[in-house]
Amino acid sequence: MQRLSANLLKLRTFCKPSCSRPSFSPSYFQSIRTQISRDRPLSFSSSAHQTANRRTYATYRRFGNQHHSSFSSHEGFVSNLGALVGMLMYNRRVQVAALVLGGGTFIFYLSNVEPAPVSGRRRFIVTTPKLEQMLGDSQYHSLLAEYRGRVYPDNHPDVIRVKRVMKRLIAVSGMEDVDWQVHVIVDPSVGPNAMVLPGGKVFVFASMLNLVSNDDQLATVLSHETAHQLARHTGEKLSKQPFYSVIALTAWLITGSSTIAQLLIQFALNLPASRQMESEADYIGLLMMSQACYDPRQAIPFWQKMEKLGLARPMEFMSDHPSDQTRIAQITQWMPKALEIRENSKCRNTQSYMNELRDSLSFFQGIRDSDSIF
Ligand SMILES: [Zn+2]
């Protein structure tokens, strides 16, 4: 059996390609640090800077009165940093530039805040759907290449089953114009998992199809993934990265520790934001599957099964996903609204029975002509 790549081995349940995290590795910070020391040698012997030297001397002493002019040691670096900060604080032009830059950034941020669909959560997003689709297409071709020979043919019953459920979800998602593609991957080394890439590329591992007890539970999985696509969570994560980089760099400059900067970004920003988007996908997905006439109550036994699987996971505050217990509690809280939506969608009328009958017929028809499903 072909081994998975290191990246895909790290994938946890659901949406992994869309859950990429920034990498603020020590080498990343070291490269920035080296660049700064090369570009800004902090020597204050120049006569042109004598005034600045006098003004910043107090600050320079405050950081240990170290007279290093290079970053050869941590103390020297921090001392030079203190001098630099002091110099900048007293420089009018720098003050004006910082004010303009900060104000411009703030206005840019506010002008790109918009509500997420369904949940209404206000979030910053600056990427375009076109860019997100380009990234999704790139991942799509990579995944197809990686799993070459382990993708079920389009006329396989499992593929047809996934398409059947996706068809009903797509019909209520408002994304009928997306170029949807469905693939089922058979790889016993991968646990129950599924993902939807930007651009409507759906991947479901066969192990997930073995886990779900019925189409309602499969709809729980697929509606969650479709919700990520609807809410453009990939674009939202990408949009935040420049801010995270600036914050990480600032934290590193202040503390001199790349580890602290990494921990700050990871635990204070990245992971909470990821868990929030996962919960939002649960919420949107639950309402979506209800609108599509699937039983939202089946989401609870599904997540109970996931919990019993006991997949190795970090504690919730260290994870990019909510715990299964949190998900079950939240879904239970949202259930009345989901049931109300399902009731209002008139799922039990004659037309719905006809649709279900048509879907069942399409299953058999799809075995002969899978392309007719979509
Ligand atoms: Zn997810």
Automatic annotation (TrEMBL):
Q: Write down how the cofactor binds this protein.
A: Binds 1 zinc ion per subunit.
- CDD domains for the chain: M48C_Oma1_like
What domain of life is recorded for the organism?
Answer: Eukaryota
Recite the lineage of the species.
Answer: Eukaryota, Fungi, Dikarya, Ascomycota, Saccharomycotina
Positions of the Peptidase M48 domain: 161-334
Full protein name:
Peptidase family M48-domain-containing protein
Keywords assigned by UniProt, alphabetized = Hydrolase, Membrane, Metal-binding, Metalloprotease, Protease, Transmembrane, Transmembrane helix, Zinc
Protein's UniProt keywords contain Chaperone: no
Transmembrane feature ranges? 94-111, 243-269
Q: Which InterPro entries match?
A: Mito/Outer_Membr_Metalloprot, Peptidase_M48
- Species in which this protein is naturally found: Myxozyma melibiosi
The answer to whether the entry has keyword Signal is: no
Q: Provide the cofactor list for this protein.
A: Zn(2+)
The text of the family note is:
Belongs to the peptidase M48 family.
Q: Where is the signal peptide?
A: none
